[in-house]
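Re-run with default settings, no changes from the original entry. Doing this only to confirm the output is reproducible before filing.
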Amino acid sequence: MDWNLILAELSFRTSRSSGAGGQHVNKTETKVECMFDVMSSFGLTEAEKGIIFEKLAPRINDEGILAVTSQKERSQLSNKEHTIERLQALLSKALAPTIKRVKTKPTAGSVEERLQEKKRMSEKKELRRRPKP
């Protein structure tokens, strides 16, 4: 993944933000939507594109565009930086290799602890029953 090429391929759209800001929020376009066209990207290999489409499918629209929005700050520039950071985190997490879990046997101590807990629960429930005649 070539992050410099991806940065050059990003497009941004601004709109009026909701939330705090008073009259300022009605006048300025501080909400930023960062759009990244995954299919036509030169910064990703075909294998990376496939992985991204597989893992981020709910976030990608029908045209193959991955969109990230931010209206957290009152500044358009801050929101733009925030969307870039979020997009980078999304792509990095999607492309990170998954590590297979290695099965291990339970330790002797954990087995003993589990059996003791079962015995305590059994005694507790035994005390709730009616006494035998």
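The domain at 3-95 is CATH 3.30.160.20 (Double Stranded RNA Binding Domain). The chain has a mean pLDDT of 89.
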